[in-house]
Structure formats: structure tokens, C-alpha cells
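Title: Request for sanity check on Iron-sulfur cluster carrier protein prediction

Description:
We are preparing a figure and want to confirm that the structure record we downloaded matches what your pipeline produces today. Could someone re-run it with the sequence below and paste the raw C-alpha cells into this thread? We only need the C-alpha cell string, no images.
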Amino acid sequence: MLTREQVLEALRDVKDPEINRSLVELNMIRDIHIEGKTVSLTVVLTISGCPLKAKIEDDVIAAVKALGAEEVHLQFGSMTDEERAALSAQLRKNQGGQTHNMTPGQAPVLNPILAKDSNTTFIAVTSGKGGVGKSTVTVNLAVALARLGKKVGIIDADIYGFSVPDMMNIEQRPTVIGETILPVEKQNVKVMSMGFFVEDNSPIIWRGPMLGKMLRNFFTEVHWGEELDYLLLDLPPGTGDMALDVHTMIPQSMEIVVTTPHATAAFVAARAGAMAKRTGHEILGIVENMAWYEAKDGTKEYVFGRGGGAKLAETLTCELLAQIPLGQPDNHPSEPDYSPSIYGEKTEIGQLYIDMAKRVIEKCGEAVKQ
Ligand SMILES: Nc1ncnc2c1ncn2[C@@H]1O[C@H](COP(=O)(O)OP(=O)(O)OP(=O)(O)O)[C@@H](O)[C@H]1O
Ligand SMILES: [Mg+2]
């Protein structure tokens, strides 16, 4: 004979996929009734249109059937505003179990990923000017790191010019529980972007200080679920306010500087690199994007010039991490998990990103050992 306690015990292992905590612990399981081998229960979701409802349903049914139940009747409900607020408070309280101060005199930061003892490696992707491929490099490096089994997040820190949701084809919106935001996951990468909070692609008209605040919120209000190995930041072009904010907010961040192969582009990118050095950010290396175009007969055409990446690496005394040729991902909207800007794992450019990710892991390992 099945008991309520057994059912609860079995469901202790079923996690809410977004929050990454047990449904039982989150008080999401209610009204358990057992009649012979039939179990009925209610799962109270954080929001009524929870995008991961189907996954929760499958997991709960599987767990209860594993106990020996023959039939499982599931009903779904959604939390009240009070319950959501309580859950939000609980998540904040339990994020690492304590609050952390970044620097004395500043507001406490609730998110432990920013704490000094956090194991998350921050990598800001930057460049001197726009359109060189920062966002493309960010999303592809993130996916490559995830393909290598790492836990990865992206913060699209380009608050005005956000592009990560489109590049990854994310249509889902983040779940907001009280004041806590849960990132959206795509291709095993957790993503947070201002684009999730803007209706109809309307322009954002906030000024500098507001932008910094928004970025800070991405660190303090976002519940990443589990400790990330890597958190990549896609920075806006140039060496403006936002770049400075990142420097002050995450002094331990490393940087990847993206450039095109043209000598003047490298010269401009050197400014971004110089700023990183001044603020003490370690430069992990240079990515030369749009390095060449490979014609059908295999010859390389250096349409945007040549040597910019190597020159920049020399100027900043760091490594040229990768040279990525021109080429669009050959993905089709009918594929599952389609995204327009992510190169397939088996493609030539996809492999270049895997190599880059391996080198990044190696270099960060080195950095940790020192
Ligand atoms: N290797 C490449 N081959 C072909 N197209 C590319 C490559 N890298 C980037 N692109 C394209 O170039 C454009 C600019 O890239 P992306 O948006 O990544 O640059 P960005 O530096 O983030 O720009 P911004 O400064 O506006 O944020 C995009 O349309 C992108 O798809
Ligand atoms: Mg960009």
C-alpha cells in the first residue's frame, strides 16, 4: 500500500528545472490522494503558463510510477502572489545561504556568483568598435563550453543593442517570481537579456546610470539555479559606461577582445584592451573574426585585410585564441533547437569554437592554479 510519505519522498528528487530545487522543498506538491494504486496530486507552478510544465509533468509521473503506482492523475495550479513573494524571499535567502558584500560601502549583493569565493569564471567579450562579432563570439563560445559539459550563462550586457535572444532564437520569456528572475535556457546555456523585457522591439531610452542599475539587477535579481562554471558577458561596443560598470562590478572578470583582421580595427580594439589592463582585467586572448573567406576551390580571400588579430595580440601581449573565417551557420528553422547564429558542432566553424572553448578552459585552469 502506497503512502503519502512515500510519494513525497519520491518527489523530493524531482526538481523544478528552472529553479533547480526539489518540488517538495519548494512546496509545489499539494493534495496527495491515494486509492489503491492510483495517485492523484496537484503541482502548484510558479506561474500558470510555466514553459516547463510538460517536463515537470513527465518527471512527476515517472517518479510516482517508479514507486509502483499504476495511474497518476496530475492537476496543475499556480501560486498566489503571496506564495510567489515568499518563494522569491526563500530563493534569495538560500542563494549560497548568506548575503555577500562586493566592496565595503556598497549595497549587499545577494547573488553569490559575484562573491570573492565564487567558482564562476566571468569572461567579458569586448571590442573597440561595433559590428565585429562580439555577440556572435559570445553565443558560440558559450554553446561550445556547454557542449564540452560546462555550466554556462550569458548576460547580454548590451542593454540598448541586445541581440542575444534573436541570435539564439529565444522566444520564451523568463519566469519572474516576485523580485527574482529565472534565466531562459537554450542549448544548455542560461541567458539573461534586456531583450526579454522589451515589448515589440521598442527602443530603450534610459540614460547611463539606469543602464548600470539594470546590469546590476542582472547580477543581483537573477537566480542562476546552480553554480555556473562560466558566465559570459556580451558587452556593447566601445569603451563606454557599460564597459566601465562591468570593470567595477566584476573586478575579477577576464576579457576576450574581438577584432577584424584589418590593421585599423586592431588599433581601435587595442584601446578596449588597454582599458582592460588599466582596470586589472586579465585578457584571456584575442579572437580575430571574419578572418578570411574561403572560396569554393579552397583558396582563402582576405577580404577584410590580414594580420589584425596577431598584431593586437602582440600589442596587448596576449594570445591569439582563434581566427574565425566568414561564413553563416547553415541551420534551418525546421530543426529542433534552431538558432540562426550558432554554428553546428560538426561544422568547421563549430569546431573552431570548440577548440577556442578548450583553450579557454585550459587557460582558466591555469589562472586558478596560480
Ligand atoms: N564570422 C562571421 N561570418 C559571417 N558573418 C558574421 C561573422 N561574425 C559575425 N557575423 C555577422 O556580422 C554581424 C555583426 O555581428 P555581431 O552582431 O556579432 O557583432 P557585434 O560586435 O556584437 O555588434 P554590435 O557592436 O552591434 O553589438 C551579424 O550580422 C553577424 O551575423
Ligand atoms: Mg553585439
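Thanks, this matches our download. The mean pLDDT is 86.
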